[in-house]
Amino acid sequence: MRIIFILLSAAPMVLQAAATEEEGLRRVQAHLLLDDLSSAYDEVLHLSEEFPDSKAVGSALVEVLAANGMEEDALDSWHRLSAKYPELLVDRHLLEELSWGVLKKGLQSNQYGIRLTSLIGAYLTKDARAVQMLVRMLRDSNAMIRSVALQMSTGYADAVLKDEIVRLLKEEKVWMVRLEAIRAAGMLRMKSLVPRLQAYVMADKSTFEERGAAIEALVRIYDQISLPEWGKLARSNRAGLRHLACVLAAHFALEETKDEIVRLIKDPHPDVRIAAINAFGLHYRKQMEVEEAKSAIELVLKDSDPAVAITAAWSAILVEPAFGLPYMAEWLNDSLPEHRRFASAALAATGDRGVELARQHLKGNGDPYVRANLAQGLLGQRIEVPACCDMLYDFLQNEKRMWMQDTRRNPLFSVLSPSQIRHNDQIPNYPEAIDHMTRLQMVSSLAIVEDSRAL
User: What's the predicted TM-score (pTM) here?
Assistant: First the structure.
């Protein structure tokens, strides 16, 4: 009876202690929810002194230490706690809290490399908690981090991230970040930004990269386009909008716009002519008889702008190889190296129609960049594989200048050429980075055909 009496007497105190512990843990979680980390820390310290052997309190201590950026203390506490309770070694919630604590502390670092690594880690979680971290990095002082955060924002598409993209398009001063904001607007199909993107296309002060990114973004945003709306773009007095019309016509394969595309092939602006010829070569030539197609591009084969003339030669080869190859051959022997290299990339894009001419210049052309462009094109078709591999390997070994893949003159043709990339204050060693990426792409081409020298 005495034992029963003692147990009954102690029961209220046990219940009160349990209630106190549970209530304290609720307060800790409430402070964490309100992001009041200092109060959560004070509360959990008091609980850990009062209940030193409690598993729940120990877990809360680890969580609060991690949230406060005290990741080393959190890890030590977790080790001590898991020694008592081995099941915590595989406790998913606790492991996640430790990981988020490390990422959160990394975002507060003064070293941009650590912030960047933490940002990538947060993005890869695909967790809702990463959204606020992305917002914070979109406001970071480092342009490189803002740029990367914009690229990652397209994987979440939360409203708060879209608001930040709108803000950056209005306020951002660094062109590299603006470029990524334009691309993000397209990836997220933000229709509210169509007028601003069209302004980039029309503005004379827009850089080539900004105009190209804006056109690409608009193409992504448009689900479809009506003929009257397309006609307004095609007949606009702004060259940028006429350029956009050509890209949209090719993208949606608008059958009814054939005559307008043929008219735009003779447009006063060279960028519009190139875009119209691209649309013609990709789609509209297939709607015409051979003679009609020849007539549509005959005039621009001798255009005063070399990029227009070479693009016209590319489309002429697609219409009828015998018609276009003589013009392309002239450009491959041009006195200016930039014209030869652009022509070689265009010829590589003609597929099997240009194989014989490509073979001739693979062996006989004196410009190593011409040969490299042709070798990459032939290798893609698995033609002359040993010769192309030898040529690319020799090029990798002997060409010491920095390289780049240039799409400025026509986005359809990626031209391997000597680097013209300028140094960027926001990206250390930017020209060298582009050079290394270009070389790795060439090594990748060798690896795809299982050339042992790629190892």
Answer: 0.78
The mean pLDDT value for 394-401 works out to: 92
Tokens for 137, please give them: 């990095």
**Whether residues 181 and 200 fall in one domain:** yes
Stated as kind and residue range, the H or E segment containing 417 is: strand 415-418
User: Residue 221: what residue type?
Assistant: I
Looking at 177, 195, 223, which one is the last position of a domain? 223
If one counts every other C-beta atom within 10 angstroms of the C-beta of residue 344, the result is: 32
Residues 38 and 98 in one domain: yes
Residue 242, pLDDT above cutoff 90: yes
Phi, psi torsion values for 269, nearest 5 degrees: -95, 130
215 & 250 share domain: no
How far apart are alpha carbons 184 and 188 in whole angstroms? 6
Question: Is residue 190 pLDDT above 60, yes or no?
Answer: yes
Residue with tokens 């069209």: 198
- Cα separation values, 157 from 24, 163, 423, Å: 37, 10, 32
Place of tokens 């062996």: 363
Q: Which residues contact 195 (CB under 8 A, 6 or more apart)?
A: none
pLDDT higher than 90, residue 249: yes
- Long-range residue pairs from 187-192, CB within 8 A, at least 24 positions apart, any chain: 187/154, 187/217, 187/220, 188/153, 188/154, 188/157, 188/162, 189/220, 189/221, 190/162, 190/165, 190/166, 190/221, 191/221, 192/166
What is the chain's length? 455
Number of folded domains that form the chain: 3
Residue ranges making up the domain that contains 94: 25-108
Least confident of 28-37, 130-139, 238-247: 28-37
